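Researcher: Re-running this chain for the archive, since the previous output was lost when a drive failed. Same request as before.
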Amino acid sequence: MGDIYHTFEGSMILEKVTPVIRALFTSLNLRPSSTEPGTFFFSGSDALTSWSALQEDIVAMIPVAQVGPFEVEKIDSAQDALYVLAGYLKVDDYDLMNFLETNAFSDDYSPQLHELVFLARKLDDGHGLRLVKCEGSWDGQQFGSACLGGDAQFFSDHFDSSVQTSVALAFAQGVGEALEVGDIAGATHHVGRHVAGILNGLKDDGVRTRISFGLACALLDHDTRRPSIPMSILLSLWSALADVPVNDQGQIEEAFMGFAAGTDREVIWHWFEGANPRFIVGEIQGGRAPECPA
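Model: Regenerated structure tokens:
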């Protein structure tokens, strides 16, 4: 099959390096930035760590006196260690418990960066991890052929993204092949799936919805031959606008779609009415919204 080598480098921003950070990211050899407080650089090759090594690192950091020797002695896997650590930190989180219950924690595969970041976020012992970004590349031979490629990963409080060069090429090839045979629907499907993947990286459901609608409207606005924006979209946006705080002068206090904070809400109302002749603010406010299909 051949050997494939993966090298990577990146950085993370956190308040301080704590026992949890040291246990999860021991192999990264974190190095503090000399110019950016709270930033730590890392680099490495091949696997980040193994589940068995992670088990040992977690056991080493758990205070036996506080947890109890019996709890520590019965740890037989990384899964057990993480359960005990969660109990020690008093973390009762559904997503974490689901992760622990459904993962195999086998050394047949190495923990991935996104899994370690997930665990760090859930098991916060004061480290305040805010951001992780990493770039990597593959080099080697597989099945007698050269194996090259790369990846980039970004994790923050509000947005996560992970891109592999093979996926980017597959996306471009899919669009190109569809257009080659005049398959507009197929090309649209590829682009839509790609954009949906990006939007899925947004943590907040409300933000994702507003960006999705804003993107749809922005795309329509860039087309001078565009039809009216469908009422269904406008009514959803109108509902989202209702959640935006407004000051005593009638100005929005938070950005909404392309409108900056401080914009008079009547300016936004005029935009709605210009987006579809059937959208009349007075009627909408009076509860007389027309049917959505048009």
